[in-house]
Amino acid sequence: MALPLPNLDDTTFQELFESARSLIPLYAPEWTDYNLHDPGITLIELFAWLTEMQIYRLNRITDANRKAFLKLIGFDVKGIQPAKIEIVLKKVTENVWISAGQQLKPIGIETIVFETEEDFYLTRSSLESIITQLKSTVIDHNTANSTPGVYFAPFTEHQQRDAAMVLGFSRKFAVSETVHITFILYEMDLPAPGQFGEVQPEVTPSVTLIWDYLNANGRWVPLNITNDTTLQLTKSGRIHFQAPSNPGKNTAGLYPIRCRVIAGEYEIVPRIDQILMNVLPAVQRESIINETLGSGSGEPDQIFKLKHLPVTMEHAGDVHIAVKNATGEWESWLQVDNFEKSAPEDRHYILDSQTGEVSFGNGLNGFIPPTGRIISADYQTSLGKVGNLPAGFSWSVEQNNLTGENLRAAWGGKAAEKIEDAEKRARKDFNTSHRAVTSSDYEQLAKSTPGLRVSRAKALPNYHPKLPHINLPGSVTVVMVPFTRENDTTPAPGNGFLKTVQQHLERHRLVTSDLHVIGPQYVKISVKCTICLKKGSSKALTTQRVKEALRMFLNPMPPGGPLKEGWPFGRSIYPSEIYQQIDKVKGVDYVYGIELIAEGSYRPVNGNIQIPAIALVYSGTHTVEVKPVSQ
């Protein structure tokens, strides 16, 4: 028995009219003539009729209508999304070429099929050595690379420019082949990168790396990098390079490749969890080729059904429908959302990815498949979130007798979106600011720059960084502070970081706004003071507590500053607040003789330290003199 559909059209014209008329004494007590000849009563009747018509239409809104309404405001109901995975292949004893579409199956769950998305070259050359060279110092990372949960810094934790990462390989790579090296960065201590709706990140790295190899003549020669999905080792990904034609060996008998930073600095120094060879990326889907749907009947509005569901449509062209023409050749038809703009001769069709129904035109809007013409389909099907397999599965590669293991869990698999969820997504998007008008708009948009980890952003209206003392209407300056690990007290954005934020904000600013994106200035604040201890307090421990309290208070990052949100941009430093911070320290009876010492761009005003609007403070070296214990 089918579930009863709710009747939304449950209010009559008379009920609407009576309800509105009964409110007249409440809102217009001077209105006393309720007869039908009164013009006001006529208007109430008109609006009651219009309301009844709207309710009547509301009762007849179908899922197709709701999808059409979503499309009108720029939203589609998302289909099923396949999971993605990376499989580390083991014991590759010879060079192997894996073609796109190669199937891979987890051993023990052969019903779940993954496929490669692109051609891939597997090499028998193994990674035997990972070191960091810093002048005459050599740091060996082999143990860290093979130990789960242990990371290493390829260019040292302090990002020294002279440092170089050198990878040593056991064999030559096959000449002219594209080699892939996978880098998995340690990011467990980092927040997720910024996101803004469905916008894809377009990040410009702040550093430039150079890759080179040792040739047979003992010289370092630039390596031909064809693709870098790590964005200069700022995120996990792969380095693709053309195998060199004349590689040479080092003193260890290995074929080395070297990586160095030649320009810029990282906002977050990279830490590498693992470097791996022969990591095969795959997606959870199964390709269906040349499936016969049936033959045309010559009738309008023909419908055929695909045999394997649900259908994935991640990219245009994922589904291919062809009809055999009069000469026996296959003729490709074009998928459209509807037939509204289809002419009688247009070879168009509509596909419902959930039901698998393929619909053709009626002869007026869209061509009709002629009688007896065979209809064929190529498409892909997926299991969605079922494909999000945990780490540790063993895998087999059909036709190549290779095995492997996924060291990380699969990700990204999702079931098809419900219409209700799509409507919620649309409402959320409408409540998100897409236009930078106010200062808070600029700050929120800057913090959500796709692909960047932003700690703080401050928008200064009517401020130009080159003319800081002049009020310039229309000029907006956004000061950016990147996220950094705890060892960096003055985080500064690089040129690539600022360029990425600028490009993001340019899409959202007003046409008349003159936008500038810059990094902050920093003013170093050191404190000299004298404290008197309470009875029984430790001199060394109390001194340490005072210095730590000052370090935490004079901090550009949370929990620094008076509000524990990081020191406010442009806020002066007042001795009275320093007195207050020290006086709260356990073991301090009282404090006196405070002296503030500033380094950087500042101005002393009546004993206070005044800093520019784009500046932040950070803690310097504090001197604490201790007087005898109070009695």
Features:
single chain; 631 residues; alpha+beta; Jelly Rolls; Immunoglobulin-like; 7-stranded mixed sheet; 6-stranded antiparallel beta barrel; 10 helices; 31% strand; flat
Q: Mean of residue pLDDT?
A: 92
Distance between the termini: 89 Å
Count up the domains: 5
pLDDT < 50 runs, ≥5 residues? none
CATH architecture of the largest domain: Sandwich
**Share of residues in helices:** 10-25%
Largest sheet: 7 strands, mixed
Give a count of the beta strands, DSSP E runs of length 2 or more. 34
Strand order of the largest sheet: 17-23-19-20-21-22-18
- As a whole number of angstroms, the C-alpha radius of gyration is 34 Å
Tell me about this structure.
This protein has 631 residues and is of the alpha+beta class. The chain folds into five domains: 13-60; 124-277, Jelly Rolls, CATH 2.60.120; 286-381, Immunoglobulin-like, CATH 2.60.40; 439-518, GMP Synthetase, Chain A, domain 3, CATH 3.30.300; 522-627, no CATH class. The chain has ten helices and 34 strands. The strands form eight sheets. Strands 17-23-19-20-21-22-18 form a seven-stranded mixed beta sheet, with no helix packed on it. The radius of gyration is 34 Å and the shape is flat.
